[in-house]
Write a structure and sequence with these properties.
Number of helices: 13
Number of strands: 8
Strand content: 5-15%
Structural class: alpha/beta
Helix content: 40-55%
Shape: globular
Order of helices and strands: EHEHEHEHEEEEHHHHHHHHH
């Protein structure tokens, strides 16, 4: 057993159907002046918001609503912080999908830093954040990014010279994650598919990561079991509360394990592609997951340099196909399962979003192999992308 490893802190967790009604009581311990970050209109036009609003009013809270309708850009964060820079805010509450949670996380930090967020972003910024923030509560309404458990907020600027970078500090982990699977039942199928594949990719990549640990691996495997049980079910019936609960649990675990084990080549691609093209993050993950693992497994077999990773592929295969007659058969069946899942969930190829063969080199140049169980060449990285272009 690996006896030396570290593990990052996690939020105070409140989990279960109906728990979103506990929010007003939780806020009593923090303060009465709130900044509430939401998405477009899906939550505020739904049946939960009027009830929550009446409860907040009954508890004499004062609050402002901020809408984040896409993946947050530096301008989004800076505009909100400038608007409220002179207000006294006791807590930032984000209620929405991963982009809303990331925005709320960044706003809670930048309201204290009082500087443009871009100067703190990994890879392009010039300063490290102090870690100071206004208390932050994450209330996810999708099951995807795991942002409710992570210390980073993804900030994007989509253009020819665009980027998708993280604002990161261990103190940015939400103070409270309030996860109510009931809030996810209104997600349309397309969003459920994309978010679910993001969660699945994060769990699998963290489990296979070269930075893994026994504790993170155990959590990743439990999340993977939940996805296998429920992803296809929840995509067929969005009102299946048992399946929604499984996916909410898996999403939370995916955030914990990505924070501790890191991710692999699929998320490296997603970061690069997300800066250049307007494509949902979960679609990038879902469309590349089978191809990336096929090429990675092939490289592991050719080199024989990472038998532990091969064993993990066996574990994944036998989790779904316990009757596999050999380790290699179990590994191959897992790859086939990923590819059939991509087909069954009707996840589009990359070229649907304008990605063509002549930009693959640019994408590869902006990607990497960090934490991937096999070190892939530029040619192998390009081969993964080619496998997800329409023939």
């Amino acid at each position: 057993m690996q006896t030396s490893f570290t593990f990052k802190p996690t939020p105070a967790l409140i989990f279960g159907p109906g728990t979103h009604t506990e929010l007003p009581g939780l806020l009593k311990k923090i303060g009465s002046r709130l900044l509430i970050v939401v998405g477009g209109t899906s939550f505020t036009s739904g049946k939960e918001w009027p009830v929550l609003r009446r409860s907040l009013d009954a508890h004499s809270y004062t609050y402002n609503l901020v809408h984040i309708t896409a993946e947050p850009s530096p301008e989004d964060i800076d505009t909100v912080c400038l608007q409220f820079q002179n207000d006294t805010i006791d807590a930032v509450v984000a209620i929405g999908g991963g982009s809303v949670l990331d925005a709320g996380k960044a706003i809670s930090a930048m309201l204290v830093e009082k500087q443009p967020v871009v100067i703190f972003l990994e890879g392009i910024g010039t300063q490290k954040p102090s870690g100071k923030k206004i208390p932050f509560i994450a209330v996810p309404t999708t099951s995807g990014t795991g942002s409710e458990a992570t210390s980073n907020a993804v900030i994007s600027k989509v253009s020819e010279k665009g980027f998708k970078k993280s604002l990161r500090h261990d103190n940015y982990i939400p103070d409270i994650a309030l996860i109510d699977p009931l809030l996810t039942t209104g997600c349309p199928r397309s969003l459920t598919v994309a978010c679910g594949m993001d969660t699945f990719t994060q769990l699998v990549e963290a489990f296979l990561s070269t930075k893994g640990s026994p504790l993170a691996d155990a959590l990743a495997l439990d999340g993977i079991r939940a996805v296998i049980r429920s992803l296809e079910n929840v995509c067929k019936d969005g009102n299946d509360l048992a399946a929604r609960t499984d996916m909410a649990y898996a999403s939370y675990l995916s955030g914990i394990v990505l924070a501790n084990s890191g991710l692999g080549v699929v998320h490296a691609f997603a970061s690069a592609i997300g800066g250049f093209f307007n494509i949902p993050h979960g679609i990038v993950c879902g469309t590349l997951m089978g191809a990336a693992n096929r090429i990675t497994l092939k490289k592991l077999r050719e080199t024989g340099e990472n038998p532990a990773a091969l064993n993990k592929y066996t574990i994944l295969g036998k989790m779904i196909f316990p009757d596999s007659p050999s380790d290699e058969e179990a590994q191959d069946r897992f790859i086939s399962y990923l590819e059939s899942l991509t087909e069954n969930l009707e996840i589009a190829c990359l070229d649907v979003y304008g990605i063509t063969e002549d930009v693959l080199a640019k994408i590869v140049a902006g990607s990497g192999n960090k934490n991937n169980p096999a070190l892939l060449s530029e040619g192998e990285l390009k081969e993964i992308l080619k496998l997800r272009l329409t023939p």
